[in-house]
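Weekly modeling sync, notes
Attendees: S.R. (lead), two postdocs, one rotation student

Agenda item 3: backlog of single-chain predictions. S.R. asked that every request posted to the team notebook include the full sequence so nobody has to chase files. The rotation student volunteered to paste the first one in as an example of the format we agreed on. Action items at the bottom.

Example entry:
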Amino acid sequence: MSRPEQELAAALAAETPIPRDADGPVFAEPWQAQAFAMVVALQNRGVITAGEWAQALGAEIREAVAAGGCRDGSDYYERWSAALERLLVAKGLASPAGLAERAAAWSRAADATPHGQPIRLENDPQR
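Predicted structure, as returned to the notebook:
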């Protein structure tokens, strides 16, 4: 990571802290760890650079804070997920319509899944 990218990452960490404990980042929900892992995998495959990611996440956080969003870090992974979606659309790897349809499919799957069971996309009644 270049010096400007390091400075941006440090500034973002100070502005909206990543939930962590002594062992590193803490995830309150499995989806948060999955979103984190997707970004790491995309960086490892060279699909996105650390700089692109820092810029996308920074912009998302700044917009959320400017709109009155949470400043204590509790919405960090919502911002992470939104930044990932925006970056995928900007790079032509996903479309807004495709993302909206996938979100709707997950919602339908969640509604159709019995309590206590894992939510699977196969549970979407429209699938």
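Discussion: group reviewed the output briefly. The CA atoms of residues 105 and 126 lie 8 Å apart.
Action items: rotation student to repeat for the remaining queue; S.R. to check formatting next week.
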